[in-house]
Amino acid sequence: MEISTFLSFSLLLFLSLLSPTQGFEPSPAPSFSSSLAPGSASSHPLAPDSGGTLAPGSDLSPQSPALSLPPSLAPAPMTAEKVREADVAPAPEMEGSESFKGAGPSSQEVEEAGKQMVRWCTVREEYEDCQLLVRGLDQSNGYTWKCIQKETAQECLESITRGEADLINLEAGVAYTAFINNSMKAIANEVYCDHARSYQAVAVVDRKACQGNKGISLMDFEGHKSCHGGYSTAAGWNYPINHIKESLDSQRMNDREIATGFFSKICAPSEFEGTGICSGCGNENGSCHLSSPYSGDHGAFRCLVEELGDIAFLKADTVLLYSMEGPHNQSWSSKSVRDFMYLCPDGGCREINDYPGSCSFGAVPANVIMASNSLPNKERLFILQTLTNAASVEALQTAKYGASPLISPSTQEIAAVKKLTRSYLGMSATISQSILQLYTPNNQAAPSSVNPVSDVASQSSSCGHNSLVIALFSVLTMLLLLVRTPM
């Protein structure tokens, strides 16, 4: 009897230990702090606060409270080498879940409020292109389209977080910020010539720099002036700075320190207030207005044309589009495409064309249309059906000829993103993560409350835990039966 009582008590004690704190409850969403020390080595201007935890989940972006950007740094949970394609960022509820407490209203609230409008958030001059675009889009199925104008991408992300807008088109670097900080997901992407869903990140220099110097490389531009498509953008910043970091083995400096230590002057405006580095194109204090004429890929090329910089980092087709002969030439387009060459990162130069091949920093995922993770499924399907049909292609062609087009000039069509957001961003997300890692104290990987693994791995781990519980429960039950059975 005493043995039976002891085993029963042991069983109850064992089961009482299996509380929700053993990994069955979702990890909390990261919190965000508005505090920022610009240029501080210990904080990255676009990263979530370190108070949050990273958890695997469904659509792989964090539940985000009202966000006041730029937030303080949360160190990256792992080094770039350990980031696998399937590794995930914090995740909210499943798509369309009405229990989602992050950005925007639930689908039920939307229907109750009678909302039947898709609101596309645009930045500055994009608004005019958006107006042209929506005129040619399907207004049926109970939805209409509306363009909302903001001064910066930061303001757009905040509007989407508050449920005041639905969509924004972003390049991959800023898309990663929206994914991590604003609980947003990729729903559609641009498609370029030959059905390409990526573009090349390149460096462009004056042809004179290449003449008589066949072995010239990026390292030869140390101490020179640089032009960037934007701070924290993939082609304009993350890819080239990551290359410099690897070449110099600068693991003890953050991205801003690497850039300012390598280049004498920098022109890298930002869509996030207080984060741009504009010693080469700003005011006396080295700051630049958010609507700087040198922002974006075309702005970086303008910086090079006007000789504010000696090298520009941008998309491969930018020079072809905005040079004197280009279809999108501007009032400042005073030089020919023949005046410039691609600078191969590891040495040599190549003629400007849309296919630099190995003379690039790598492929960047096509610009992506992002929406809140709480976007109702019915509305998401309407958006995809509208943007991907044949009639919308004509509207796209009409709406991409401004100085700052809403849709990239090379876009041929829009396609639905059929991958999870982190997977779609791929290597670009990995590089963005490695940039964040540079802000970790002593540049060591920060411990995470959970393993930053894929959905499948997370489910397998959970299943393994449950199997262990069942096995132990079975053993204890068998012992009880043996004790109670008369010999």
Automatic annotation (TrEMBL):
PROSITE patterns documented for this protein: TRANSFERRIN_LIKE_4
Renumbered residue ranges of the record's region Disordered: 25-111
Signal peptide positions on this chain: 1-23
GO CC term (a single one): extracellular space
InterPro entries: Transferrin-like_dom (IPR001156)
Positions with biased composition (Low complexity): 30-48, 60-77
Tagged with keyword Ribonucleoprotein: no
CDD domains for the chain: PBP2_transferrin
A single BP term in Gene Ontology: iron ion transport
Sorted UniProt keywords: Signal
Highest taxon above the source species: Eukaryota
Domain Transferrin-like: 118-432
Protein name, entry field: Serotransferrin-like
Species: Herrania umbratica
Species lineage: Eukaryota, Viridiplantae, Streptophyta, Embryophyta, Tracheophyta
